[in-house]
């Protein structure tokens, strides 16, 4: 809500708002299908990286910077794409059980792909970000 009211509080408010809308829709799956709660728990592991981002901005320690970038690569660029495949397999299982591919679990690999796409967008932005020169 804060980003919507004060969009200048972040660098790219539309991307952040889109991310939060996708996540809110995504949360409906374990809400209505508790047996898939573990899927949301797996997806939420990415928040470790978010916490490290906040920590490194708050407490300027080199270790936090390293942990942030290591967790970025592991969680956002490796773990999240793996979850696309994992959730696709769950959709296939749900399709067998329900007898139709048009079941709500179809949304999980689709939304996971969208969120992974955002992660790669942010990774590219990080890589292309101009380095600030330190002044003495």
UniProtKB/TrEMBL annotation:
It comes from the Eukaryota. The keyword NADP does not apply. The chain crosses the membrane at residues 12-29, 66-88. Keywords: Membrane, Transmembrane, Transmembrane helix. It holds the Pfam family TRAM_LAG1_CLN8. It is a multi-pass membrane protein. It is found in: Membrane. InterPro entries: TLC-dom (IPR006634). One of its GO terms (cellular component) is membrane. Residues 15-126 form the TLC domain. This is TLC domain-containing protein. It comes from Tetrabaena socialis.
């Amino acid at each position: 809500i804060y980003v919507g009211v004060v969009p200048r509080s972040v660098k790219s408010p539309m991307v952040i708002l889109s991310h939060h809308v996708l996540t809110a829709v995504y949360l409906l799956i374990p809400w209505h299908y508790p047996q898939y709660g573990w899927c949301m728990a797996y997806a939420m592991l990415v928040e470790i990286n978010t916490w490290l981002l906040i920590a490194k901005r708050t407490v300027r320690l080199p270790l936090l910077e390293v942990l942030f970038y290591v967790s970025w690569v592991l969680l956002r660029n490796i773990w999240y794409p793996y979850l696309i495949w994992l959730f696709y397999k769950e959709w296939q299982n749900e399709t067998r059980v329900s007898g139709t591919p048009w079941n709500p679990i179809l949304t999980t690999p689709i939304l996971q792909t969208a969120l992974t796409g955002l992660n790669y967008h942010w990774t590219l932005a990080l890589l292309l970000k101009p380095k600030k020169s330190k002044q003495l």
